[in-house]
Design a protein that fits this description.
Length: 163
């Protein structure tokens, strides 16, 4: 696995990032649409996705990034009954940046937030590639990723991207 991990790191680090004006709300909406079949039994709260939130970003990288964050939130709620499975996706426009926040009603990380710099997963079947892709994409865009507790009870992932 070490060779595979190192190869994947090199590939992801060497990706060309093509910046152009993109709407982060549209990107989040597209990621939700892509995951729609898996979201049938999940209550999804969308906040701020209809207002323009332009940033300079790579459309493809950001769609993959947001899809990975949403997929992790979805997986975190899998063990819950359908009425308790909830995800909140929020895009907030600030003066010089846009915040993207994804929260879920899953069990949360507790005090052990994931290390996104290595290919490691807290899930038995996981490779850690999803959060590594998220971290690499955000590095390419100059945005941090922060972990915390969601108001829905599970974990919260947020990032701030320059507009």
């Amino acid at each position: 696995m070490l060779f595979r991990s190192e190869t994947m790191r090199m590939l992801l680090r060497n990706v060309q990032t093509e910046l152009s004006p993109v709407d982060l709300g549209n990107i989040a909406g597209s990621a939700l649409l892509y995951l729609l079949p898996k979201l049938r039994h999940v209550g999804v709260e969308r906040v701020g996705l209809t207002r323009p939130c332009l940033i300079d970003g790579d459309d493809v990288q950001l769609k993959i990034c947001v899809s990975n964050v949403l997929r992790n939130a979805l997986q975190a709620t899998e063990g819950l009954p359908p009425g308790k499975r909830r995800i909140r996706v929020e895009v907030q426009r600030q003066e010089n940046w846009v915040d993207l926040v994804v929260g879920d009603s899953g069990p949360g990380f507790g005090a052990h937030f994931p290390d996104t710099t290595v290919l490691r997963s807290s899930k038995e079947e996981g490779s850690g590639l999803g959060l590594y892709v998220v971290r690499t994409t955000l590095d390419n865009h100059g945005g941090p990723i922060q972990f915390g507790q969601s108001s829905l009870g599970g974990d919260r992932k947020s990032t701030r991207l320059n507009s």
